[in-house]
Protein 1
Amino acid sequence: MSTSTDNRSQVEAQSREVLGPKVVEFIEQCHADPEPAGKLIAVLHEVQAEFGYLAPDHLDAVAQLLRVPAAKVAGVASFYHFFRLTPRGRHMINLCLGTACYVKGADQIAHRLQDELGITFGETTPDGMFTLEGTRCLGTCGLAPVMMVDADVHAQVTPDQVPGILEQYLREDKPDRQ
Amino acid sequence: MPDFEPVLTANVDKEDAHRLTVYEAGGGYGTLRRVVGQMSPGDVVQQVQASQLRGRGGAGFPTGLKWSFLPKDHPGPIYLCVNADESEPGTFCNRVLMEADPHQVLEGIILSAYATRASTAYIYLRYEYPLSLQRLQAAIGEAREAGYLGKNILGTDYSLEVRIHRGAAAYVCGEETGLIESIEGRRAWPRIKPPFPAVEGLFRKPTVVNNVETLACVVHILDRGVAWFKSIGVPPEPDNPRDAGSFGPKMFGLSGHVNRPGCYEAPLGISCGELIDRFGEGVWKDRRAKAVVPGGLSTGLLSERELDTPMDFAGPIRAGCLGLGTGCAVVLDETYPILDFLHNSCRFFAHESCGQCTPCREGTAWALRLCQRIRAGRGRLVDLDLLAEIGDTIGVMPGTTICGLADGAAWPIKTALAKFRDELEESIRQTNPQGYARTEPVEALNTP
């Protein structure tokens, strides 16, 4: 009977299970890099692409497998705006609140979106269809005001177009994508 | 500037400009062939230094001088970081370059890495640019196949790896040491300098950080020569020893209330008004401009009277702005309230302050709350003095923060107060007719 208190292999097995084979394989590739800790942001991108958000279990598992302190993983995950720590809706609405969009009426679109969806920025609709976020400048100022739904860019949006755009996604009911 | 020939954007409108064959057909990578193996890295640095090229990312630091700070005879590795985290609100020229002409960017990267003897180049690409990522990845693949990248470039003993690091949305990553921290997989907290990155940067090795457009300029300096580059733009002011001149072509962005927003190339020194009228086809709806942000939100505001300001590195400074910044102008028409602009600006910087230095973290947050209170109809005239005090005390220039984010937050406040105080006072009087003159402390208003 073993008397060792080393549970490393057990912890690693659990972490692998939490993250799934795709992310685990990515992390293993990272260890070939001369600076594996530098891959933390890339790993979190992978995890979020896989699960849609970063749950506390995911963060712990990344810390274990990438061998980075858990506090550091949590710090990075909460620092960058792109990383979500709560589940998101099926469609992600990002409204650009950069200066160029703002002066061309992004605020009115923000109000209309909030009215239509019944949620404020950072929230998800009760039916899980839409998550609304305000983003900083998207670098498409020539098309201002800009609203992104998932990967689609909607340019020169007017408040009255908002219901139609939302309807489009409800109708299509596309499968979840990042 | 009738005989000005655009070089940076020469390929942008060509069909399939992002492909290697199209780039090579236009003479692409010819400069690389002429330079690598035939010019020594030291000669390249000397050429770039002689051209007096200044960084296009915002600060305008002389590029050749930055390169010359690298230690000589360092055993390596030396890193080149490409700042493609174009985050300044209103700025989008780097995106145009990376999406339409990624090989030009790549050739600039390879030449600059050769000059600085860097063995790895990291492109720090902001997350919001998926098409740029796709185009750059494809370009790197094509260039490697063709022998422009990888081991023993063009049969010489020079080797270079290019890696793309995707950001995750944080404005402060555009600060060079914040960018380095982020590539190292940490929160993008800017470092205290010195040591400067040239001495101790990425993974504690000598590092150079340059903007995408700066690196693209390097290609044309080496191709067409220093004399060509210096024939474009504005020489240094004779009575200002700190002005290094503004030579070369520059990409200018135009957005906001103009008829034709977009990205245009012109010589440095073109006036702000000419930029709007010639390229933007004037202010929309036949209105007049009330104010123009000359080069990204942090640079502050030019008033209508200052539209003859030359868009070179010194011009906006003379007009009371932070500087040329990124050269991407946002136009506000005569109907647009300055208070709304100020609120948007304060909201942005309060959100993006990394939280490391108290004056910035607290200053930007309180500036936002003051704007919110004024917009909620509870503003007082003394609030403007409070805003001015915040504007004057946060940043690298007053010496209270590590990086320039707070300076960027301060300049919109300072210029709005200096140039549009009457309008701001008027809107306070109108929205709070009972209480505008009060001076006793009032409760903060905590609404988003």
Note: The CA atoms of residues 24 and 30 of chain B lie 8 Å apart.
Protein 2
Amino acid sequence: MSQKYYLLRNREIPNIDQMAVYQSHGGYEALKKALNEYKPEELVDLVKKSGLRGRGGAGFPTGMKWGFLPNDGRKRYLVVNSDEAEPGTYKDREIIEQNPHQLIEGIIISSYATKAREAYIYCRGEFLFGAEQLQRAVAEAYAAGYLGENILGSGFSVDLKVYRGAGAYICGEESALLESLEGRRGNPRLKPPFPAVAGLYGGPTVVNNVETITNVPAIVTYGADWYTSMGTAKSPGLKIFSVSGRVVRPDNYEIPLATPLRTLIDDYAGGVLPGRRIKAVIPGGSSVPLLLPDKLDTPLDYESVLQAGSMLGSGGCIVLDDSVCIVGATARLVKFYREESCGKCTPCREGTYWMTDVLERIEHGLGTEEDLDTLMDIADNIGGKCFCPLGDASLGVLVSAMKFFRDEFEAHVREHACPMGAKLYDTVNH
Amino acid sequence: MIRLTIDGQEVTVPEGTMIVDAAARLGIDVPVYCYHQALGPLGACRMCLVQVEKMPKLVTGCTTAVTEGMVVHTQGEAVEKGRKGVLEFLLINHPLDCPVCDKGGECYLQDYTFEYGPGRGRFQEPKIQKVKNGPINDLVLIDQERCVLCQRCVRFMGEYVGEPHLLLEGRGVETVVTTVEHQPATSQFTGNVIDLCPVGALLSAPYYHKGRPWNIERHSTICPHCPVGCSSLATTRESHIIRMEGRPVPDRDWGWLCDRGRFGYDFGYHPERITDSWVQQKTTSAAQATRDVAEWMQRTLTQYGSGSIGFVLGGHFTAEEAHLLRRFAHDVAHTDHIAMVRDVKGYLPLSLNGTFEDVAQADAVIFVGVDPYEAVPVVHLKLRDRLHHFPQLQVMGVGPRRLTRETMPGQDYLIDAEDEAIFFAKALASRLPNDSRVQALIASIQDYSLPVSDADLEVFGQKLLDAQHLTLLWDGENSDMATVLSVLADVRENPTAVLPTFGPVNWRGYEQAGIDPQYAAVEDLLTKVRNGDIHMLVLWGADLLREFPDRKLAQQALEKADYVVSAQVVPPLDMPYIDALLPVATWGEVEGTYVNMEGRLSIGAAGVQPPGQARPTRSYVVNWARLFRQEWQDDAWDVFDNAEGDVLIRADAAVASEITLTRPATKPADGVWTVIQGAWVVENGLPSEILEPRETEFVGRISPDDAARLQIGAEGGYVQAQTSEGSVLIAVRPDPAIMEHTLWIPRGSRHDWAQHLEGVLTLMRPEEVPSV
Amino acid sequence: MKPEWKEWAREFKEQYPGANSALMPLLHRIQAHEGWLSDETIHDVATLFDLPESYVESVASFYSLFYRHKVGKNVVHVCVGLSCALAGSDHLMEKLEHHLGIKEGQTTADGEYTLLEAECLAACNAAPVAQVNLRYFERVDLERPEETLLGTSSEKEVTP
Ligand SMILES: Cc1cc2nc3c(=O)[nH]c(=O)nc-3n(C[C@H](O)[C@H](O)[C@H](O)COP(=O)(O)O)c2cc1C
Ligand code: SF4
Ligand code: FES
């Protein structure tokens, strides 16, 4: 399928991670345009008009978020969230490793728009190569005069630093990220105040996802109308979907929002392996409820996916086929939250611990009928009662799996064993 | 003010109040673990879930501030289910060993589980294993398995005290509370975490397995160790005090204690406790000693007439006991020679005496000669509390050493103790040169120069005048300060309050009982003994050689008196001069009133029997009266008559009629060490076996530079002091608060060498001392 | 304390305007050189930044990539996220355990390798995935994982 790329331009242009290559393909022209032709407020309006929504998971309108910054003369910060650790999501990593200059260009434009004097990229600790790429690209941008004092003679100045996390999924949550960036344990902060009012070092702060910001140069170049010409009125534009699991071509796909899920899986990702059927799809990263095959025609936009009973989230799409034990898959995902719970609040810390144990027991044939009810009750006791959204995130797959595949859970209990051999991967079968 | 409705009841509270606190005003108890009003909201435990109308989910009452018209439900199905769920979560990794847990019966987890908890356990998986009964230090134990990770202890030590000796280690369900590098926590406030811990994770080591809720009693009392007199609870079992806990007083006191107060309750049954009477070096029964002493008194009276017996009070007696003694002295022993032992010369008129509310309101505080952290530790916490709410708080120290510290930062004015009053006077004069009161103040010291620049004086003077609410803590060392303070209060337009940090702890109570608190009174009395005008000396709790600064006078008086009678708890330094030593009941054994440094009246409870033959002051007095063939009649004296509520009524401040300052004698020549003294509650004379592991022998302190020169490490070492009177081996350690060529020693120390160390010429390493 | 740590601490402190932002970068760099963060290191770092030791320890112990126990020269992270699990990461882990003669979480006696689980490494398209000293190894051969992962000594972690 031939396609034009706006975000993953590295797929068309080799070595676009190099400044010279990026520039020779129109790189940093959007920045010049922004600085020459727009006042900061006009850029905020442009982004508002484009309808761009945050790609970090929550889908909050970006222009509106920028508009929340209080106008009180305090120093402002832009923080880019590159802590990508949501199972099934790997789009930001491709951008920072392969197309870092577009992100940086987006950061400079966004800083100009939000009048931020300092910007940070908080890069997941495991992304060592990504951080190196960013560092190098940032240095190139400084050398080219795109960062630092009086950028391109515009009078606008911004500094950008790359900050490495050190292994903690919770630091993707924006307030935990800020804590970490300030050199503390990554425990989420009490809100209010929200980062817009009191964020990094107490200053007004915008936190945006890597993909969100990478959209900005394209919007400046091609205009808001171009952006809204894709997707739906409420979910316009482009989105990268990371497809993984039981498909022929697991990969990142940059497609317009509202593309049907079936198109993504079958046409782009090549469908499931021969002889297999889709059993369920996690459409938006590990925190969202499962969709069953009957929802494959759902357009991938925020509203439609919500309507279908799940969430678009980060766009990490994990496909489970009929060879996958749903109990095992659920256990695996819940265990992730147990490992990554920061431990601050009781329901998340203890609840994910408990659920993981129960699920693993069921998976290995040691569960009881009662365990199933207990599981649902634990989920109910976590739901809506945690300090931050991580606790709730641990429930998306579990609760939907119990709803759609209760018989499979019961079979585990009845047969005192996993009907599929308690293995998520079968070497013989493959 | 915000109006809202909670469970159908309306309440009006200040803006910023959290739902749980608003509910508390209505007497509605919302269960909490992590929340503590002193520490502020955290929102970690999720126990305090409540329902707020128009909000989609339950909210935590500890992190949600009230809003106008809010409607809150602290009950109902959703709330109860939420609480039950949280409790169940807390219990899954909790060992459920309540039957062997010291907090059993005093535990929020147990209480809430009983009240709201799940009926039976559904959790069948193995619990996470962590450290059980590990040490926080010698006094506090931690059972990490029982911990619910509410973070109260960590936040208290780190944010509140500012001594972050506890930390959260690890992440998620593996998180534990532990100490730095797993080494003992050394803060003097560690015991508070026992009270703060809502479960049985932090335990008192000395109380470990000593009591169960059904075999103990808890008595409301006060702590007798320093002039703060912290409100506390004494736990008794079988006539032993086996624990002290803080006792919060709503709207006034969080109930913190320092470790000295919390763990030093065992002086009453210390091995050295006097339980028999000694008459002329021989043990005898208390009854016989009482008769002997009565006979001596009669003999003295017969021989020398009225006024021939002198009484000096000290120790930890109640105001009522002081009153009894004074009446006895007057009515039966026919003497008005009664005074209290004083270790400093200053006296503060009640009219200037502030309360802790003046700390809570202060925008500027000045430590005159005293580091509250050492002398009145819990005041340090009250100051920290103020600093939290009012970070602009100006803190200043005036004295011969640094008095501010890392946890109470501020500016130090290094001024010799004898110059403190002059420093204040000159500072005032620099800003108010034309004020007649100030002019009078400096009249005699105009040309006396201080080692501070005029600019510094002016800045300090301006601060004295600018402060909106000025609160001073005063050690009483420089007696002229009283005059300065009264002028200061008079010239300032805004409130000025002074908190005296000197002892004896109940001196205000003794004063109320009619005993002259002035240094001159006791000095005069002892002079009369020395001069042979008083022939018998009754020391009620006073230990002259330890406590009275004029050692020579004390010694001469002790030598001269025909009879010296001493009622004590532990052997006094005066022992060699004593004719009769009487075992007397003390704090914890007698009920009565104590008046603290605020002038606040509190009742000390009687929870235990005095040991052996120790008996209350009252028994002695009543018996003697009977032996004098006088019927003892109680009178109607009541110290509360002088109080409004529980605080002594202040008369209007009147500026002292005589406003002059004494000119200090010329300074000793260079090369002589300056010896300074200060109150250090850890070393205030009352022995404690429990606290022994935390005590240091190296109670003297010198500057780090001097220590380096003497090759003394951080923990301390011995040096030989050459004094004008000879050579003494002393134990010192470095302290950055002490200036060079200065030796600091605690007042009233238990270490004999530390008494009256005067005229120190040199300090040397012991091996360098030339053999004599 | 290595003499250069002081220099690094100063460098990082100058880079960040506030709070203790310099802490994590310094821990990263020291660990890149020392392999792990010992109690002494924590102590030294606290001294360098004039921070309470408890603070530094509490922060360091929160993050799984800060090693508070001695690790091998090569740290092998096997991704156990769902997508990798669907591509056989459990099998991969077993093979490595068997080959190295250690269990997950352990270090070989010769101090060469430490074997650890990693949560989703954001490379699900290339499952199963592993990292050696944070360098990615994609589509690891399940039959002979040791050949790619353990064969050649991998590039050392350097802190950007
Ligand atoms: C537990 C948790 C993990 C998160 N992880 C990420 C992440 O890795 N990357 C990200 O961009 N946003 C993540 N988010 C969302 C952020 O909190 C925040 O909403 C986002 O960075 C805002 O950027 P956006 O508006 O551009 O989406 C996470 C949120 C939660 C609750
Ligand atoms: S829900 Fe609670 S424990 Fe979980 S990550 Fe958020 S704050 Fe931490
Ligand atoms: S008391 Fe409210 S969350 Fe702990």
Note: Strands of chain C lie at 74-79, 113-118, 130-132, 135-137.
Protein 3
Amino acid sequence: MAGISTEDITRLLRAWSEGDESALEKLTPLVYRELHRLAGRYMGREREGHTLQATALVNEAYLRLIDWKNVQWQNRAHFFAMSAQLMRRVLVDYARSRRYNKRGGGVRTLALDEGLVVSDNSLSLIVEIDLALQRLAAIDPRPVQIVELRYFGGLSIEEAAEVLKLSPITVIRRWNFAKAWLLRELGGPAKSDSGTTRADRSAI
Amino acid sequence: MTPERLEQIEALYNDVLVVPRNERKAFLNRTCGNDDELRAEIESLLACEDRTDTYLEKPALQVAAESLANQGGGLLVGQTLGRYQLLSLVGRGGMGDVYCAVDSRLNRIVAVKILPSYFADDHERSQRFEQEARVIALLNHPHICILHDAGCDNGTYYLVFEYLVGESLSERLVRGPLTVSEAVQYAIQITEALEHAHQQGIIHHDLKPSNIMLTKAGVKLLDFGIAELRYQGGAEPKGDQLLYSLALHSTSGTLAYMAPEQIKGGETDVRTDIFAFGVLMSEMITGQPAFLARSELNLVASISNGAARALSQAESQTLSALETLIRRCLAEDPSQRWQSTSDLLPAVTGLANTANRESAG
């Protein structure tokens, strides 16, 4: 596991895109590893009292997984679509399993020094976004593609534009629309009088 | 809905976004005409506009990682570190999460402690980690939890310990104080373990109830010398560095067991552990939080206050001997304490004899 490089990831991703489901099993732990490393670094930063360089750290994590600058695939767009789909699949499964664990008991834990704090609904949001995207894809897959690349694949507007061979303005417009659409699908605008946030309500 | 219709909505929505809010109604009147459905679509999307700025701008990976970080530690269950497959999270403490794991080579259950990620960021610290782990691995004593292995897998540093079944002393103390003979029995084992380590030049530095496991085989001291790993650079923690380290790691409980020289960031030695032993000892007897015992140490009084019955003469003899012993552990000036565990051990054993005579009589 230690020796997996971005080339290996690219190779596995290609195998997966060609229908090899066993490649997904090998890719999943790699995404998990990056996820845990990232979480660990967030914690480390918080403890050290540094400003959370969240964006820089998450970009770094994506780069380690998908070194898109060096990808030699003939069809870059296809490669990124697959990477983003991989992230979507793994993260949604992850979010689902964590939700399940919380409800079903899951692992018995024992607090030593500090209590175990599990109160976070942001993971539910990932699952709901996935479901809303499935509904949107039934109408038109194009906005879904942008959301996959940006939200799951971590690409910037410019990167997504390059990959899709679209102008950045087209990407921005499609992205704007997709965000509003998803938000509406997931429960509509916040009521200004209540302090309830999206994440709060998704727990209900 | 057709893709063409969706495209129409997308285009119009974006067009409206750049129109000033007070002109949007007129704009939509012009563009939608009699198409009420289109108008309703756009208006419902616009109602969400103000919240789209933060919404979805954080990549899912970041959302998941933050959620994980908020929970105070990753559930690495199912992951493999080196040859260890993590089965379940069994505990978490200031120095990292502890997992029950399978050693796939020797096919046995072990405890894997994951060290916080800031080790990974610092070459010097990671080198020090290796060096310290080698030292801790030298400890081989029936009352010290054995370190089997230490390693790093892709930036995650971990220590592999023997897997213990039992409860920690802090869990035990929740149910109230120990009997004097129990406490003395444990005290002997703790002192023996400390002596073994001190002879090899290893100081615990973080002796406290949550670092002591009570098993069928008696006491087991955990995290021997792990505190050392917290300090960067030199062999001993120094002022700022220690405070920094405290700020990073200390759960409020830890401070209560620290010797004055440790809190001040001065030189520490075996007598630092002896101080912590004293705090521990009084907590075992009184069941009181350590800081209370430390500020107003009067065992005889605190126990007779708590006990419904009056203490017998023999019992109070043992207790006053115990109090003398503990006071000497807790001297502010290290030179006034027991100077070594070989100095302390006969005194603790002597107590056991007194306590035994007491229970026999």
Note: The longest strand of chain B covers residues 84-93.
Protein 4
Amino acid sequence: MNGISIDRADFAAIAQWVKPDARVLDLGCGDGALFNYLGRERSISGYGVEIDDANVLACVKNGVNVVQRNLERGLSEFDDQSFDYVILSQTLQAMRNGERIIREMLRVGREGIVTFPNFGYWRNRMQVLRGRMPVSENLPYQWFNTPNIHLCTLHDFERFCSERNIRILERKVLTEGQPVNFKPNLLGALAIYHFGAG
Amino acid sequence: MDTTLTTAKASVGVVTPRRAAFSEPLPLKCGRAIANYELAYETYGTLNAQRSNAVLVCHALNASHHVAGVYADEPHNVGWWDNMIGPGKPLDTNRFFVVGVNNLGGCHGSTGPLSINPDTGKPWGASFPLVTVEDWVGAQARLADQLGIQQFAAVMGGSLGAMQCLQWAIAYPQRTRHALVIACAPNLSAQNIAFNEVARQAILTDPDFHGGDYYAEGVQPRRGLRVARMVGHITYLSDDEMASKFGRTLKHGHVNYSFDTEFEIESYLRHQADKFSGYFDANTYLRITKALDYFDPAFDHGGDLTRALAPATAGFLVVSFTTDWRFSPERSREIVHALLRNKRDVTYAEIDAPHGHDAFLLDDARYHHLVAAYFERIGAKVRV
């Protein structure tokens, strides 16, 4: 890959938090693009986890060690604290049991990194105000075919963490690949959190 | 996803079985040794100058060294994994040098109970030792020595063949760059052993068994072997697959209130049993089921598979099939778990196939694409 395109801006943000040579578990790793990006940028090692047959095949083609598994069933193959980071990129909102997977991330990894589309983003709010379910770059599905069943806002996620004694270490908010510092829950499209046990 | 591989698929064509003779005694796990033995094998493709592109294919219960292609005088005798191995196939013989070998104790040309024991001038029969997966792999390693293969690019197998892959990775880590472990289990469950014991009892109690020395009597314990094969076949298929293939279909459209073949499934089992008992040796069958029962690399490590697999440094592709109840995906996940704990390179895929344990032998696009991609990865580091 040459340079960082807008949709890979979250990769760069994640890479900044990942220490070199770290052991990483990438949940919902897709075709292994993030894993390979971190491999190049931070020489990480570890595994991807993916449920989809086509993505598992793509990981094999892309040289990523992948374990086929339904994340809803937890991470029982993986031992406690066996990774430096467990990453859940653009998948939390599609999980049936989001709380369980966050707990599993902190069981298996020392720290977690999660990215999700911010439902509080003003464009989403506008569409809801107009009486429609939002469809956007980060939420590209229609209401009837979306895999995204548990959408939340930055505020929601931060309250979720504080209520469960999960410590947010760092946060980045992006819109069209650019960082958002002013009113992020309104102006930010994509949330990226780095967290650990409290 | 498309259902065919993009590259042209072809057969390796006419192949010729070979034999390798060994005169250095092979110590066996049971404590005995075999002084002289032969192994039947076949090879496809060309060993490259660096000798880095060899792939060993290990067979399961009833198969042999005839993995791919056909024989000149038997054009319909197609190798048992011909859909997987050949030019342009997932294991591409244009790139890789493939070795198939009949295991020690087999009945397809390697030294086994059918062979003449040079000490007595008679068939080994009952006196042939109970060989193990470890013994087979030891013998295969000596064949590799003879062929000038110091290290295999990959060792590949399904079911009992996959157990040999695990054993290769454990016993010869320097000689096993990759292991393709398909439809495997780290050991047999009590249920698996129970099925094997039913099969053995069928053979052992057949009046034609003669304590294993039936060759001199001019008979074969066919009835026992038939029942053994029937039991095996039931465990290779899923309930769903049997339902869709046979259901309750009646051969003659109505029941006859007799013990003749009435349901299609009965007809299928009897046909498989007749076929099998016509070419397979009962003593070999007994020994192979025992080798299955005994395989348990974790046993010497207090049941700890992670420690058992600790010496294995190979890259692993582990594949299971969702409807395989003989070696279920849970069993493959035990292997994966141990490899993960050892921080090994491992890819695990669970193929949603309806066919049960037999799926590993069938041409399923997702499965074959995956194996092809994995060999692509192996081949990228091999100059051919």
Note: The beta strands of chain A are 23-27, 45-50, 66-68, 83-89, 109-117, 166-175, 178-179, 190-197.
